Amino acid sequence: MLVVACVKQVPDTTQVEVDPTTGTLKREGVPFIMNPFDIHALEESLRLKDRYGLRAVVVSMGPPSTEVTLRKALALGADEAVLLSDRAFGGADTLATSLVLAEAIRRLDEREEVAVVVCGRQTIDGDTAQVGPGIATRLGYSQLTLVDRIDEVDLRARKVRARRKVGGWHETVEAPLPAMIAVVREINRPRYPTVPRRLMAEEATIALWNNEVMKLDENKIGLKGSATQVRRIFSPERAKGEILGDGLSNPEEAAHLLIGKLIEKDILYL
Amino acid sequence: MSSNAIIFAIVFLAAMALFAWSSFRRFRLVALGRPEDRFSDLLKRLGGMLVYAFAQRRVLSRPFGLNHFVLFWCFLILFLANTEFLFGGLFPDYVSLSRLPDGAYHTLAFIFDVVSALALLAVVVAFIRRAAFASPHIGGLSRDAVTILSLVAILMIAFFGLHGGKIALGSEPAAYMPVSGFVAGAFFSGASAGSLAGYINFFWWLHAIVLLGFLNYLPYSKHMHILTAVPNCFFRNLSRVKILPREEFKKGNTFGVGQVNEFTWKGLFDSYSCTECGRCSDACPATFTGKPLDPRLVIHDIKMNLLKNGPLIARKKTPVLPLIGDDKEGSIAEEVLWECTTCGACVEVCPVFIEHFPRIIDMRRYLVEMHAKFPEELLTLFDNMEQRSNPWGIAPAERVKWAVDIEVKPFEADKTEYLFFVGCAGAFDARTRRTTVALAQILEASGVSWGILGRDELCCGDSLRRLGNEFVFDNMARENIKLFADRGIKKVITQCPHCYSTLKNDYRQYGAELEVIHHSELIAHLIQEGRLKLDGAGDLGRVVFHDSCYLGRHNMIYEAPRKVITSATGQEPTEMARHHAKSFCCGAGGGRMWMEEPIGKHINVARVEEALEKDPETICVCCPYCMIMFEDGLKDKGVTEKVKVLDLAEVAARALK
Ligand code: SF4
Ligand code: SF4
Which of A141, B71, B239, B441, CA to CA, is 20 to 30 A from B595? Predict the structure, then answer.
């Protein structure tokens, strides 16, 4: 049986700068990383692999350069990687993305039964948190979001028990398998790749599934299949800050200044 | 042949055979290690062997070293006497000192007599020292020590009994053997010829048995060093900086050392050479602050592991005792391996040139690379280094933020002479940024042609290499070297001893021939050339100087920073109790900067206390890590109002005319 982790390669948003003249985001030269939430999803899939003897498959949709991220997943312990890449998939919103990913999982399931799909709660570039639920809905899987602990996967009884972190409390839920589980970052501490695994991953073959393989309706994927369109990317205006005092050499005075300012701005009341 | 000689011949052959067999069994295990070339520069090796093994330079640097020196030379001289003794026993009719010409015979007899007395005296001193003045790490009157000292004492007593008897009997001349002569007068006067012959026979056999017993005891005790110390000095690492060889990242290879035979033969031979003198333990900051790491025990555990597993490995069987991870003798606990700051104090003091921390890094490599096992807090460091090429994981664009208020130029090939390699701390750490600015001012003031890489600068990878993450280090080193080559960089200024040592020494393994200069050397040089004028009237009060491990011990830069302080303040810096090669680590090297220190006293606090003993107003450092560690230590002691820490560049910049 399979556990499938969905990961996305994203620009390292903390390194994206705003072009001071045009006010747009400068994307060139920004390094790509594995979406930080997805690292935890991958880790959780590997833990399920270790706990229940599942085979771990990692799936990602993106340009061919996504290979780097998939190799990283293989180095961490995934058994197999599938890259969903085609010009026709490009420009997709969450609606079109979840369609492609769901189809890929369905195809994997034809070969070997899928027990659990693990997704990160959201990506740091889109922040929608819609793709996981989208996949679950399309495949008719149970849908467990905001999970911060997987208590048990019972393959015989075909159910999963997990804890969700909702608002200020936890709830423990049980759902039938197959299930899509979207995890929060607190769920685990990711592992680190060993060198032999890294070397193995460098040479491993990554399955490439383009639309010739997937055979999806061109009107339902990519930009054409997207319900939302991005008109403009900009960073919101921020009021200019002001530097007060010398906090380095006189922290006490700095604290006084800060509290004074906060009171003055009605943020703090005495 | 007399019956005595026949019996002795049998005993002698048996003893020699036993000795040869035990030695073979031990040394055969050394051959299990990986190959390593320690045969280069034979003349230099020979020279070092004379200075360190025969002249005992390192041994003599401690008070009781003189006693060891005496004992060592007594042994060498008596080796001759004992050879004569043994062969005289085998061939009594042919081998005897007395068959030499009179002059030679009398001189040798005199020397052997006096030297035996000296040896006995040295043994007594050693006993007293072990009983009353032993440092906590040498085991005082351990069984091993008592056994060996007693054996030597008995040997000497037997020598005097034998020769005293002979003198009383009139078969040896008293005039040339003052001590034996005294023994003859004091103990054997009036004894009959018959009883004298009995005594002589008794002492002869006592001497013979103890001598052969001693020989056979050696391979089984710490006194194996009598056999191994001299060759170990010969095969010592000739380079000052002890960097591990690169690894070849090929599928199927294993990385680091997880099983004892994965050390090189020299690593194993080192473990046989330890004299258990405890100097490394005394010098180690981890041991000093009460942590489980004790470099002597690391070496001891390697030896015990080899003795236990070696014979199995030789027969292609699975070892029974793990090298890493057990709490037993012969196994090294993981936490111990993470406590080392790679300060090099252990290697510096070891009289027989054992290399402790490189073995620790060997094992760290194994843990990190083969099993991804390391203290939790290092995960963030490793990820930050790999993704952002700096330990904090700050965006590279921030690398130029230190220069908001001053003008800096990018390095341009053929136009700029020096690259100022700012370093991660210099670029990101708020406190160290002030050092960076100070150094920039100095460079400007002395008209040095310099430029920076700005946001393109990468981390040198020092912490990764010391922590055993060789795979990521290897990538970073190659990236850096490519960057330097692409930009036409040949001369580099660093303010961090870790960048300095890594660019200068570690990158050499990659074929990079950079001219790297640490700011302490550069500033001293600029002053000397008259390009930099300091007023020598600093307002810094008493300045205490701290030697950074990677500047001092690892790279032998001791005087340059002291000269700069003198020029800047008009007074020589005050020395702490431990300085120069004996300096005590700040606690941040070897990747310890990025780790918690849960056990024992904090190393930085121990060092700050040592500095405070000198009642300074200023503590001068030459390293961003030392800066952070000292500032934290001063906060801990609550004396930040009274004492400040300044980098050498800041000390110099304040005195700019
Ligand atoms: S390098 Fe320093 S910390 Fe490490 S074992 Fe040697 S003395 Fe101790
Ligand atoms: S390793 Fe060197 S310094 Fe340490 S106890 Fe052994 S001989 Fe002495």
Answer: B239
Does the beta-carbon distance from B395 to A15 stay under 8 Å? Answer: yes
A134 half-sphere exposure, CB direction, 13 A CA radius: 19
Is the distance from the beta carbon of residue B464 to the nearest atom of ligand 1 less than 6 Å? no
> pLDDT, tens digit, for every residue of B563-612?
999 999 999 999 999 999 999 999 999 999 999 999 999 999 999 999 99
Helix ranges (H only) for B241-355 are 265-273, 279-283, 285-288, 295-314, 334-338, 345-349
Instruction: Judge if the upstream peptide bond of residue B219 is cis by omega within 30 degrees of 0.
Output: no
Q: In CATH, what is the architecture of A2-214?
A: 3-Layer(aba) Sandwich (3.40)
Same domain, yes or no: B387 and B528:
yes
Q: How many Cα atoms occupy the beta-carbon half-sphere of A207 within 13 Å?
A: 14
Looking at residue B52, its pLDDT comes to 93
Q: Which of A15, A196, A203 sits opposite B397 (nearest CB)?
A: A15
Strand partners, A116: A3, A179
Single residue among B196, B219, B234 that ends a domain in this structure: B234
Tell me if B548 sits within 8 A of B580, measured CB to CB.
no
**A171 to chain B, closest Cα gap in Å:** 29
B324 has which bridge partners? Answer: B332
- Tell how far the Cα of B344 is from the centroid of ligand 1, in angstroms: 6
Cβ of B347 less than 6 Å from ligand 2: no
Specify whether the CB–CB gap between A58 and A78 falls below 8 A: yes
Best residue of B247, B250, B255 to probe chain A, by most A CBs closer than 10 Å:
B255
Q: Flag if A33 and B387 touch (Cβ within 8 Å).
A: yes
Q: Are residues B188 and B324 in the same domain?
A: no
Residue A204: closest C-alpha in chain B = B251
**Overall size of chain B counted in residues:** 657
CA distance B48 to B276: 21
- Determine whether the shortest distance from the Cβ of B552 to ligand 1 is under 6 A: no
Nearest CA to ligand 1 atom 1: B342
Set of chain A residues whose Cβ sits within 8 Å of the Cβ of B458? none
What does the pLDDT look like over A118-173, one tens digit per residue?
A: 999 998 888 888 898 999 999 999 999 999 999 999 999 999 999 999 878 999 99
Ligand 1 mean position, distance from CA A23 (Å):
53
What value of ipTM does the predicted structure carry?
0.89
- The domain segmentation of chain A, as residue ranges, is 2-214, 241-270
The C-alpha atoms of residue B598 and residue B586 are separated, in whole angstroms, by 16
In a domain? residue B457: yes
In a domain, residue B86? The reply is: yes
CATH of the domain at B283: 1.10.1060.10
| Closest-CA distance of chain B to residue A81, Å | 20
Backbone angles phi and psi of A194, in degrees to 5? -80, 160
Q: Where are the beta strands (DSSP E) in B366-473?
A: 418-421, 450-451
Taking the C-alpha atoms of residue A253 and residue A244, their distance in angstroms, rounded to an integer, is: 10
* Same-domain check for residues B20 and B119: yes
Between B164-173, B361-370, B373-382, B433-442, the lowest mean confidence (pLDDT) is in B164-173
**Is B176 domain-assigned?**
yes
Distance CA(B543)–CA(B575), nearest Å, equals 9
Interface contacts (A, B; CB < 8 Å): 40
Strands lying side by side in the sheet with A80-84: A169-176, A159-166, A142-154, A179-183, A114-120, A2-6, A55-61, A80-84, A207-209
Query: Nearest CA to B255 among B368, B356, B382?
Result: B368
Statement to judge: residues B89 and B17 lie in one domain: yes
Asked whether residue B43 is assigned to any structural domain, the reply reads no
- The full DSSP string for B471-533 is HHHHHHHHHHHHHHHHTT--EEEES-HHHHHIIIIIGGGGT---EEEEHHHHHHHHHHTTSS-
